[in-house]
Design goal:
Layout (H helix, E strand, L loop, with lengths): L1 H33 L22 E3 L5 E5 L6 E2 L14 E3 L4 E4 L13 E3 L4 E4 L18 E3 L4 E4 L13 E3 L4 E2 L18 E3 L6 E2 L13 E3 L4 E4 L3 H4 L7 E3 L4 E5 L2 H4 L7 E3 L4 E4 L13 E3 L4 E5 L12 E3 L4 E4 L13 E3 L4 E4 L13 E3 L4 E5 L12 E3 L4 E5 L12 E3 L4 E4 L13 E3 L4 E5 L3 H5 L5 E3 L4 E5 L12 E3 L4 E4 L13 E3 L4 E5 L20 E3 L8 H15 L1 H30 L6 H34 L1
Parallel strand pairs: 2-4, 3-5, 4-6, 5-7, 6-8, 7-9, 8-10, 9-11, 10-12, 12-14, 13-15, 14-16, 15-17, 16-18, 17-19, 18-20, 19-21, 20-22, 21-23, 22-24, 23-25, 24-26, 25-27, 26-28, 27-29, 28-30, 29-31, 30-32, 31-33, 32-34, 33-35, 34-36, 35-37, 36-38, 37-39, 39-40
Antiparallel strand pairs: 1-2
Helix pairs in contact: 6-7
Length: 640
């Protein structure tokens, strides 16, 4: 009897399980049929063991659907026809990077076992349904991961999010929300498990809620590209001891950075506060952040010196301090940052020399220190930066010669040293920097000729500026070989001679300045130069002529004058032409007779006869052509 009862129970369970599978199958096929576009060919009732063998479907041991994973699957349509009530065991739904649109149905909340919901990078509109966060026996109590980024959601962020007690990762940035960051995000006595908050680019307008500090497990926070105003509240930040990534950039933050709090985040790896209105100094306590890899403080109102303790950040890969008011020298201990790839501190008031120790940073790819007050010579230790791609040091007071060792930097793409006090010749070793796209050496005191190797070796060059130096000689013909060149400025030098005609073949050239030199001759025309018709390009070269200048070239003027002479002498012109014609004919006939008299003796040889007659045929042919050309010109002059 007991066995019979067990068999009945098992039988009933199997029937229920089969019925559930059929219901799930029908729900998925109905949604597939409603889509505008899909490539779900395996989703078919004829597919054995469906839907568990369908693409992107995962089932549990009973055959019930527990996961739908369709990221980047080229699906277009809505979710209106997806019956969530028919998928009671679903734990994961991933529809990221598709073309889904419309509203999120409120019956989403029926997915009571859902732990991960990813609808990011679609075109969903409207408000986020508050049902997502409403707790009941069937309202997403298990949700741990929620990604709605990069959609078109509007309205406020639902306060009901605070009910998602197991939520660890909240990503809802890049939408069109209104209002601010709900204080409920902090009152989330239930949200103590939250580790990731991504609210970047979400159109939020508010201050940072103090309640945020209750999210004590946070390791990632990004509020960038919003209108976050006010200061960085110490009370809130002091509770975030586990923080690893903290970013509030492109906002309206003001006040000082609470270094005494931030430097207690010993696990911090990335600190991104660029493009705000923060002021004050960088504290020497920054040296405590031994795990820091990225420090972005670009475009604030920070001042003071760069603390030497920054040399303790031995894991630092990016140091961005540009567009502030930092002063004083670059600390020598920067040489300790062996992993540093990017060092940018342009548009500050830095003084002193570029430390020799910077040559120890073998991983450096970018040095951008333009627009400061740095001086002295560029250190020869730069030769050790074999991975360097960009060296930007323009608008400083560097002096001396350009180090010839720079020619060993074979990965260099951009070399910008303009607006300094550099002298001497352009070092020939730079020909080895064959990847250079930008060579900017303008406004220095460089002398000598423009090297021909610039056009021979630097084939990738797009921008060449040698303006306002003391360069002399001619413009090398090889410059016309720089087929990728977009901008050429050789103005305010002592260059002479003609402009190479092959410059007109530089099809990408959109900026040209050759003004204030001693160039001469006719300005080349045709091709790309036809579009560069601003006469100021060539001004200050008194011996240049031709369009776009108003000065006419002598050869062109002679042609115009010649037409006038023909008009004045139309009566006697034909007579003069006729006289000249007979003069040439008589001269040639005399030459033939003379040749016969002198060489007649050759006719005694049969071979010489053949040679002579061949020569005579050639003379006859030449004479015929000559006479025809002259007669044609004579007729033309008589017709005028």
């Amino acid at each position: 009897m007991l066995i019979h009862t067990l068999l009945l129970i098992i039988s009933a369970f199997c029937l229920c399980s089969t019925a559930s599978v059929v219901t799930e199958l029908q729900a998925l096929l109905k949604w597939k049929a409603s889509l505008d576009f899909q490539s779900l060919t395996s989703w078919s009732p004829s597919n054995p063991n469906s839907p568990c063998k369908w693409t992107s479907i995962v089932c549990d041991s009973s055959g019930s659907v527990v996961q739908i994973n369709l990221p980047n699957s080229n699906i277009s349509g809505t979710l209106y026809k997806l019956d969530f009530a028919s998928l009671p065991n679903l734990t994961r739904l991933n529809l990221n990077f598709n073309n889904l649109y419309g509203l999120i149905p409120s019956n989403f909340s029926l997915l009571s076992k859902l732990t991960s919901l990813d609808l990011g990078n679609n075109n969903f509109t409207g408000a986020i349904p508050p049902e997502i966060g409403r707790l009941s026996a069937t309202n997403l109590p298990s949700l741990q991961y929620l990604n709605l980024t990069s959609n078109l959601f509007s309205g406020p962020i639902p306060k009901s999010f605070s009910n998602l007690s197991r939520l660890q990762d909240l990503r809802i940035g890049s939408n069109n929300f209104i209002g601010g960051i709900p204080t409920e995000i902090g009152l989330i006595s239930n949200l103590r498990m939250l580790e990731h908050i991504g609210l970047n680019n979400a159109s939020l307008n508010s201050t940072i809620p103090l309640e945020l500090g209750l999210c004590s497990n946070l390791i990632f926070l990004d509020f960038s590209n919003n209108l976050i105003r006010g200061g960085l509240p110490r009370v809130a930040l002091s509770g975030l001891k586990k923080m690893r990534f903290f970013a509030i950039s492109n906002s309206s933050l003001s006040g000082e950075i609470p270094w005494d709090v931030i430097t207690t985040w010993t696990d911090l790896e990335c600190l991104v506060l660029r493009v705000n209105s923060l002021n004050g100094n960088i504290s020497s306590k920054i040296g405590r952040l031994s795990n820091l890899t990225l420090l972005y403080l670009l475009s604030n109102q920070l001042s003071g010196m760069i603390p030497k303790e920054i040399g303790n950040l031995t894991k630092l890969e990016v140091l961005e301090l540009s567009i502030n008011s930092f002063s004083g020298p670059i600390p020598l201990l920067i040489g300790n940052l062996k992993r540093l790839r990017i060092f940018r501190s342009f548009n500050n008031n830095l003084t002193g020399t570029l430390p020799v120790e910077i040559g120890d940073l073998k991983s450096l790819q970018i040095i951008d220190i333009n627009t400061n007050q740095l001086d002295g010579e560029l250190p020869s230790s730069l030769v050790g930066l074999e991975n360097l791609q960009i060296l930007s040091a323009y608008i400083n007071n560097f002096s001396g010669r350009i180090p010839h060792h720079l020619g060993r930097l074979s990965n260099l793409v951009s070399l910008q040293l303009s607006h300094n006090l550099l002298s001497g010749k352009i070092p020939p070793s730079l020909r080895n920097c064959s990847r250079l796209e930008i060579l900017d050496l303008g406004e220095n005191a460089l002398s000598g000729n423009i090297p021909t190797w610039i056009g021979e070796s630097l084939k990738s060059l797009k921008f060449l500026d040698l303006a306002q130096n003391k360069l002399s000689g001619t413009i090398p013909y090889e410059i016309g070989s720089l087929v990728n060149l977009e901008s050429l400025d050789l103005s305010l030098n002592k260059l002479s001679g003609p402009i190479p005609p092959n410059i007109s073949s530089l099809n990408f050239l959109n900026s040209l300045n050759l003004s204030f030199n001693n160039l001469s001759g006719k300005i080349p025309s045709g091709n790309q130069l036809q579009t560069l018709d601003d006469s100021t390009i060539y001004m200050g070269n008194p011996e240049l002529c031709g369009p776009p200048l108003a000065v006419q070239c002598a050869t062109d003027k002679d042609k115009v004058d010649g037409i006038g002479d023909e008009d004045e002498n139309e009566d006697g012109g034909g007579e003069n032409e006729n006289s000249m014609l007979w003069f040439y004919v008589s001269m040639i006939l005399g030459f033939v007779v003379g040749f016969w008299t002198i060489c007649g003796v050759l006719l005694f040889s049969e071979g010489c006869k053949i040679t002579y007659f061949r020569f005579l045929d050639c003379v006859q042919d030449w004479l015929s052509v000559f006479v025809l050309v002259k007669m044609a010109r004579l007729r033309k002059s008589l017709m005028v």
